[in-house]
Amino acid sequence: MQDLLGRFTAGQLFVILTALLSSAEATFARQTPVSSAADRPFILVAEVDAIIHPVSAEYMMQAIDRADAADAELIVFTLRTPGGLVESTRSITSRMISAETPVAVFVAPSGARAASAGFLITIAADVAAMAPGTHIGAAHPVSGGGQQLDETMSEKAASDVAAFARSLAAQRNRNVELAEQAVMKSRAFTEDEAAEAEPPLIDLVVSDLDDLLAELDGFSVTRFDGSEVVLRTAGARIEHLEMTWRQRVLSGIARPEVAYLLFSLGTLGLTIELWNPGAILPGVVGGLCLLLAFFAFQVLPVNLAGVALIGFGIGLLALEAIVTSFGLLAVGGIVSMVLGSLILIDSPMPELQVGLWLILPMTLALSAIVLFLARLAVGAQRRRAVTGRAGMVDEVGRALTTFDSGGLGRVVTHGEIWSAMGTEPIAEGDQVKVVGVDGLTLTVRRLPSVLHGGDKR
């Protein structure tokens, strides 16, 4: 080694050492960004634009599970909803409270709202934010089974939800009085009203997600258990979590318009199958549509009286083709279907109601199809048989032999030669008419020659 070093001058050794240090510095510099990228905070963003029901609850809870598993700094739910089911809301808020990751709910974009169940989810979050031009509130509970609640039951339901709202607001240091009014008096609040209340209902008013993350950098959050967390959002890695295809399909089915269409098509398909057994396809499609509609009805606040009125209307339309009512049954059926469609969804929220723009065309189309099919079915039942023994009666043929009264002979009819017995004397070549069938022997009578031009062969 000494011999090797001795071959280099001090200047050459200095140059070699400098080159080695530069190479090591370059290598370290290349590795530094990788290390810093791993240290960047991770934020998960999930968008909820749906009614709060079991499907959207499953999506939100899966998002929280994903954030906890990835040790995320924050999970942000961009929320816009007209409301939904109380039980699904409780499941969501319970999971938000127990989450290891801080949860922010952002009501956005401008023009959106988080009403009813959305209000409870917003005030349950660690961070509640709203975009300009949005509002929250109107959380008074409504019946979800179609039955009318008496005054006592209605007060009990409202008091239960109000207590839930007060509990969430108190634990999050938000305005308890306004939270109760949102439930008991159906009050709604703009973003300014919610932010300027004392104490406020929300934490921030920001225009978009980027502004929200900028405001939250260094923001101190008090978790539900009282612990303090300071958020780091600057330079964060952001991942957007979408619904799975199954969740998107089920969430789409749970929309009132889709549920109504499925119910109407399912009823029509089964009606066709009952009137024409063996068609198979209408029965399969109708059964599938009805099953999907019943799934949606479990999620939506459905009025059972509306379902009964629609079924009654279809029954009246079917009777119109059988009973002579001069159109009264048809009119009654159409009116029954329209009224049933109007009260099918039992909710005061416009987003959960089926509009006339869909009800009237569907009702008229369904009525026309049911009447047409009913008339075809009745006409087929009244039509004269064309096969078997019944199909031979009234057939016209020609005598091949001479018949004595009550005697036997042969006739050709229906393209076939038959043994026949005459009810009167019949000459060969006379036209005859079949009046009865006894096994393989026909009973025939001679047709008057004036009706057939006396044509004899």
Radius of gyration: 40 Å
Helix content: 40-55%
Structural class designation: alpha/beta
Number of strands: 16
Low-confidence stretches: 24-36, 144-148, 450-457
Q: Numbering strands along the chain, what is their spatial order in the largest sheet?
A: 8-5-3-2-1-11
Q: Give the mean pLDDT.
A: 81
Question: Termini distance?
Answer: 136 Å
CATH homolog superfamily of the largest domain: 2-enoyl-CoA Hydratase, Chain A, domain 1
Fold-level CATH name of the largest domain: 2-enoyl-CoA Hydratase, Chain A, domain 1
CATH architecture of the largest domain: Alpha-Beta Complex
Number of domains: 4
Can you tell me the CATH class of the largest domain?
Alpha Beta
Summarize the structure.
The chain has 457 residues and is an alpha/beta fold.
Detailed description of the structure:
The protein is α/β, with parallel strands linked by helices and 457 residues long. It has 4 domains: 2-28; 40-246, 2-enoyl-CoA Hydratase, Chain A, domain 1, CATH 3.90.226.10; 255-382, no CATH class; 388-451, Nucleic acid-binding proteins (OB fold (Dihydrolipoamide Acetyltransferase, E2P), Beta Barrel), CATH 2.40.50.140. The chain is built from 16 helices and 16 strands. The protein has helices at 2-6, 10-39, 54-69, 86-98, 117-124, 151-171, 176-184, 191-196, 209-216, 245-253, 256-275, 281-299, 304-320, 328-342, 356-382, 388-392, and strands spanning 42-49, 74-80, 103-107, 113-115, 127-130, 135-137, 188-190, 204-205, 220-222, 228-230, 237-241, 396-399, 408-413, 416-422, 431-438, 441-446. The strands form 4 sheets. Strands 8-5-3-2-1-11 form a 6-stranded parallel β-sheet, sandwiched between helices. It has a 5-stranded mixed β-barrel with strand order 12-13-14-16-15. Strand 15 (431-438) and strand 16 form a beta hairpin. The N and C termini lie far apart (136 Å). The model is unreliable at 24-36, 144-148 and 450-457 (pLDDT under 50).
